[in-house]
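WARN retry 2 of 3 for item q-0093 after timeout on previous attempt; input resubmitted unchanged.
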Amino acid sequence: MLKLGRQRPFAIVPPPTRRATGRLRVWIAALLLFAGLPAAIPPRPAPAATLNHWGVPVLAHYYIWFDPSSWDRAKIDLPALGAYSSDDPAVMRQQVAWAKQAGIDGFIVSWKSTPTLNRRLQQLMEIADAADFKLAIIYEGLDFNRDPLPAAQVAADFDYFLAHFAADKAFSMFPKPLMIWSGTWKFSADEVALVTSTRRDRLTILASEKGVADYQRLADLVDGDMYYWSSVEAATNTGYQTKLNAMAAAIHANNGLWVAPAAPGFDARLVGGAQTVDRMDGATLRAEMTAAMQSSPDVIGLISWNEFSENSYIEPSQKYGRRYLDVLTDILSHPPPAPIPNPADRVAGPQDPAVRYFPAVGHTLRGVFRAYWEQHGGLAQFGYPLTEEFQERSPPDGKWYTVQYFERNRFEAHPENAGTPYEVLLGLLGRTVTAARTGSAAFALQAGALPGTRFFPQTGHNLAPQFAAFWTAHGGLPVYGYPISEALQEQSPTDGKTYLVQYFERNRLEYHPELPAPFRVSLGLLGVQVLQARGWIP
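OK item q-0093 returned
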């Protein structure tokens, strides 16, 4: 089946150099300079032109399920237009006008075939046509209990859309109407194929998977993926940019279309959620729009226009007034932020005797990091530098530090400890790379020492005899940290071979019985592993 190429209706800003970088820095103080706006929303004339200077379409998730009674449940705010019905054409016309004025190119309309939603979609389509505004569909593939609809029903609904809506110019943003299938993670590959195989010649059908492996399960059956992620703390989640970049890379490698998410905030506690994301007076929206753009998207999916139950809306409201619509207008009226330089990009050797340069990797070593590296084992202990120095937020304490990655470690500068042995500390890369494995057997807490081992009650793990002498002789606790696993057999992510290994807070030790005694224990390349996962190095 012919797959959709990366065709875009606008000129595209060049993507970030090398792979899109994983570092997102948010200067909150600079983003909080906007004055509060009154809650009342007087109608105001449309500007002379709609301006989206970002070079990719911005489509806002839009819901047509509202009746006046909908606003009585699980709401902490109401629209500036009041407790409206989605049957009201005047409401739709105002919403389209506001969205277009802000630079939004269209709505991603939540839909499945019912008499009510079909009637409302028809009305919205006619209003969008009159305003030269575009539409896409997100098909609601799960029922109220979050169970998948029968594949035959999904296919029938797609056919209804093709017969009644697809030919309209509102759906002409792409060569074929854009249909995003929400809930594909609940359907088997055979069920997805049943729906998509005979319809992709007339629809651009995207999955809604949440990870690279999940998308790859369906990659040959769909034309790309949209990630709906409205509850992330972009400013503190150090893996956020990495995940968006990885999703984009996997989708684009398959010649697919990538819809990246951005939201102004989140609060779903009234509908059973526990997490909240503070809007921070627009800083959250700015950070998430920047992160979306850094992932080289084909479309930015703004979450949302009017999701009032999860409080991710930007529609003018009684609580916030026009605030978030105006923040978005300001964002889109300027070119997007320049791509953040990749700290792993090679640099030229400086003519500075105080700086040590490594031509093999194209990176430098200077200042307190150079002193620590040279005094504590150098190349054998830490490997080559893989980045230059840069600022990074530390997951354990949420603070920003000057850091530099090496093949086996991350150095952190702590100027508050200047003049002490702790001015440079090693990052907890062992904990970083095993964060998702704490429930597995080797990481389960132990009750006490096993025969021939040294037990550390601080972490509930034993230092295996194969690693004890090396751990003690080469730095012990300050260099490696406490053990955070028992010894286990594991395939190396760098060479694919299986070794006896043990994880420590700051590294992984590997046992090689085939080598002479002085070389039987080696250090895992955790710095390499982390940067490869981010897409910074091949």
